[in-house]
Amino acid sequence: MSAQFMQYLLTGLTVGAIYALVALGFSIIFNASHVINFAQGEFVMIGGMASVSFTAAGLPYLLAIPLAIAAAALVGLALEKFAVEPARGASVVTLIIITIGASIFLRGLAMVIWDKRLHPLKPFTGDTPIAIAGATILPQSLWVLGVTLAIVLALSWFFGRTLLGKAMLATSHNRLAAQLVGINVRRVLFLSFGLSAALGAVAGILIAPITTTSYDVGVMLGLKGFAAAILGGLGSGVGAVVGGLVLGIAETMSAGYLSSAYKDAIAFVIILAVLFFMPSGLFGKRDGERV
Amino acid sequence: MSLLSVEGLGKKFGGVSAVDDLSFDIRPGAVYSIIGPNGAGKTTLLNLLTGVYQPSSGRIVFDGHDMTGRAPYEYARQGIARTFQNLQVFFNMSALENVMVGRYLQERSGLARALLRAPGLVRAEQACRNEAAELMRFVGLQDYLSAASDAMPYGALKRLEIARALATRPKMMLLDEPAAGLNPTEALELDDLIGRLTGRGITVVLVEHNMRLVMGVSDHILVLDYGRKLAEGSAQAVRNDPKVIAAYLGGEVSPDSTYGETVAGAVAQAVEMHR
Amino acid sequence: MLSRLASPRTGGLLALAIVIALLPLALANKYFYDIAVLVGLNAIVCVGLNLLIGYAGQISLGHAGFFGLGAYGSAILASRYGWPPLAAMLTTTLAVAALAYLVGRPILRLKGHYLAMATLGMGIIVYMVITTEDRFTGGPDGIAVVPFSIGGFVLQGERIWYWVVGVLLLAAVWLALNLIESPTGRALRALHSSEVGAEVVGINAAEHKLLVFVISAVFASVAGSLAAHYSGFVTPGKVAFLHSIELVTMVVFGGMASIFGAVVGAAALTTLPQLLTVFEDYEMMVFGAVMMGTMIFLPRGVVPSMARLFQTRRNASSDDRAGSA
Q1: Which of A232, B49, B237, C21 could form a disulfide with A243 if both were Cys (CB 3.0 to 4.6 A apart)?
Q2: Taking each helix axis from N to C terminus, what angle separates C30-50 and C63-74, rounded to the nearest 10 degrees?
Q3: How much of chain B exceeds pLDDT 70, in percent?
Q4: What is the pLDDT of residue A183?
Q5: Domain assignment of residue C292, yes or no
Q6: Which regions of C126-217 does DSSP assign to beta strands (E)?
Q7: Secondary structure of residue A213 in the 3-state scheme
Q8: Would you call A290 and B84 a contact, using CB atoms and an 8 Å cutoff?
């Protein structure tokens, strides 16, 4: 393995981990409500931008980061309460437009609260690159990978072991049956938006020290996260993580070896190619029409 | 000479056989019924016979054409029409338009003709409307000629599907549980409707749990169990077949089944009648 | 005869023609004419897009790609290679139709969110190609376009364009209405409701989806070509994801499965940003809020909701008469 390959792989994993977190947010909301939340990228933006503001106000990271995550989660809950809940039963296209409207609204709001400039965020623990097998990795990348791993483990524990997690999973499989066994489906829906927003915010905070952040950083990250979720198969947790990592690595590799101009297009070329052969993504349910 | 000929037909879902090595022939003009307990593979078989599912093995020959592997619309073009157990009504259209869609094969025209609304097309549309209304009357939907389909009761929607299937001018019509969900009066009227379908020269294939209906109208009955042929023959022969009686009385009577409305109940009824 | 005039089809076409004919009385200056032309061009795209989304039930989040290809195709052929604009436009339209056919074949097998993703990806790829291949397209800076001319007659000025676009919009609406009221149109609506139900009466669903996808791409491409010549300049912004979203929003805002709804939606959402400029920095927020609000409170869109309201009013008043008689 050449050092260059190793470098691309490490970078790809870092980017891929961020895509995975955003994709998990898409999947959690989709499972609870069958809504694709196009405002998912805005949670990423809010996480990053709020951290910038809180640290600028003199708060230490240990306080600023939880506050920023809480802020995004609150926005997520409000989005569900005031935009998704009132539109229950609307068609898929209508719901897509509502969440896109929400994303435009939040981006506009961010522009008013903050500005249009790029904002740096200090790395959590220094910026001296660490050498691994001939390549280098930023300490912040280790934070990205470590926190993502921790979150994936925590989520699998949450959905596999806790009552609330199981209730959310049950709701995704069969809403009516879940309701019949006494699960408060509306609360599950509400909480799923909070959880997804928090995940998005974490992604935004983790990546901000590497890429800087701005009011419109959520557009591309949101779309890539959606692509990752679709690539893995909508609603599949494993799929979201694998989809994110595959996308991140493929993107970095092709930018490195092929053409950096088309770096952002790669994700979409891959997704089209995969959907061509696997219309439900890599891990998606193949539900045949029952007649 | 058979209209439909099925040879060694099989369908597997993830390794499980829903239909297994099934062969039978359907003669033209007959009412051919397919019965069997829930999960016997009846609906799967109908889906195979209309191209909705592709078979894992075997051959389907209809009216001299090998239809194996063809798409549903190709089956329709050869003259096979069907209704659905789970209604597939076009709820975004009026009842009349639903039947007009059924006339698609006769009415379809070139894109240019449609876009420019050629004069002939306007006349054809009027004729299509009239014929659709005629078919609605034929199935007893004269009261719903100007109804929106999403405002119609369940029993009427089942007839609407029959009218739509009729509009394709089929040689063979497959009815998937036409009596399910109907009240007893509506179910009784089905006997008559099926009779009038055969009167139009249409071969009827009936999948049904209502044994009164099946025993009353069928010329020939195929009994399925676990996707295989358990028995085949006239109503009389099937009723007396010890294998059928054993299969159905062997724990198939569920507590909520109405006597005479399910296979198990009906076979029990048939057995009783015979004593 | 009178009853035919009152039918949604003839009556609606007539009403649209009257609005187009009389609107100039209210257009005080060039600026208003300019907005009216933009409304017309967007409306042409939306009428085509509504055939795909509203009638056939197939979503596309990438139609700005077809609009952009139309615009850039005309721009490059006419301005860079000096083709006559009409020939450039026709060639571009044919090429876009062929592309839509090739791309549509595999992606229209997808359903729901997967189709949304695929069309979105397609649109973004087109956008990236246009911004990157700057030798042809001018990249992010855009490209200047020569005015439209036919046999020495140069189409220039908002007023002339107003009439050209007005007539083309009427033609687009007429064609779309014709299609919808034909057996093909019924087949499209049928497969929207139940694909298997449509197939078993003999409708080749895949072929119909592809057909309407190509038609909608052609509408978008033609509007794109005209927009390029009209404004004399194209930038990648017209190809961006956000423009695709704007187009879909226009369709849903006006009303899915309503040809006139598409026109109303295009008019409302093209004029809205002009009105919102008074909000300055808050423009984006207000636009997002309006998008959310209308979809929450009028999920069927403006025209069908109004039609329903009108219908209930009329039924109520006829009930009154029946009651008093």
Answers
A1: A232
A2: 120
A3: 90
A4: 86
A5: no
A6: 143-144, 148-150, 153-155
A7: strand
A8: no
- Is 90 exceeded by the pLDDT of residue A133? no
Q: Do C197 and B90 touch (CB under 8 A)?
A: yes
Higher local confidence (pLDDT), B267 or A209: A209
Q: How many domains does chain A have?
A: 1
Range of the domain at C133: 12-20+29-283
Which chains border A (3 or more CB–CB pairs < 8 Å)?
B, C
The closest CB to that of A265, out of C128, C287, C295, belongs to C128
Looking at chain C, which residue has its C-alpha nearest residue B82? C200
Please write down the long-range contacts of C137-142, taking CB distance under 8 Å and 24 or more positions apart.
Answer: C137/C72, C137/C76, C137/C236, C139/C236, C140/C235, C140/C236, C141/C235, C142/C233, C142/C234, C142/C235, C142/C236
ipTM: 0.87
pLDDT for residue A92 is more than 90: no
> pLDDT (tens digit, 9 = 90+) per residue, A146-155?
999 999 999 9
The answer to whether position A272 is within a domain reads no
Partner residue opposite B72 with nearest CB, options C181, C189, C199? C199
Report if residue C298 sits inside a domain.
Answer: no
Q: Which chains touch B (3 or more CB pairs under 8 A)?
A: A, C
Question: What would the 3-class secondary structure string for chain B be?
Answer: CCCEEEEEEEEEECCEEEEEEEEEEECCCCEEEEECCCCCCHHHHHHHHCCCCCCCEEEEEECCEECCCCCHHHHHHHCEEECCCCCCCCCCCEHHHHHHHHCHHHHCCCHHHHHHCCHHHHHHHHHHHHHHHHHHHHCCCHHHCCCEHHHCCHHHHHHHHHHHHHHCCCCEEEEECCCCCCCHHHHHHHHHHHHHHHHCCCEEEEECCCHHHHHHHCCEEEEEECCEEEEEECHHHHHHCHHHHHHHHCCCCCCCCCCCCCHHHHHHHHHHHHC
Q: In the predicted model, is pLDDT for residue A288 greater than 70?
A: no
Q: What type of residue sits at position A238?
A: V
Q: Which helix (H) or strand (E) holds A1?
A: none
Count, in order, helices (H) and strands (E) of chain A: 11, 2
Q: Give the model's confidence band at B272: pLDDT under 50 very low, under 70 low, under 90 confident, else very high.
A: very low
Percent of chain B with pLDDT over 90: 67
CA B6 to chain centre: 16
| C239 is a domain residue | yes
Assess if residue C136 is contained within a domain.
Answer: yes
Average the pLDDT over B113-131 and give the result.
90
CA distance A151 to A165: 14
Smallest CA–CA separation between C199 and chain A, in Å?
13
Strands in C119-260 per DSSP E: 143-144, 148-150, 153-155, 233-234
Task: Determine how many CB atoms are found less than 10 A away from the CB of residue A74.
Answer: 14
Supply the range of the domain harboring residue A69: 23-216
Residue of C nearest to A86 (CA): C296
**Which of C175, C173, C162 lies closest to C13, judged by CA?**
C173
**Integer Cα distance of C201 and A14 in angstroms:** 52
**In A, residues 48-87, which contact C (CB 8 Å cutoff)?**
83, 86-87
Mean pLDDT is lowest, of A179-183, C178-182, C227-231, C252-256, for A179-183
* Angstrom distances, CA of residue A26 to CA of A185, B20, C291: 18, 41, 21
Do B84 and C197 lie within an 8 Å CB cutoff? Answer: yes
pLDDT at C323: 41
Contact criterion met (CB below 8 Å) for C39 and C271: yes
Which residue in the set A93, A105, A261 is minimally distant from C252, CB to CB? A93
Alpha helices in C282-301 (DSSP H): 283-297
- Count of structural domains within chain C: 1
Q: Do B73 and C202 touch (CB under 8 A)?
A: yes
Residue B185's contacts (CB-CB under 8 Å, 6 or more residues apart) are none
What is the residue type of B249? L
In a domain, A9, yes or no: no
Residue A265 lies in a domain: no
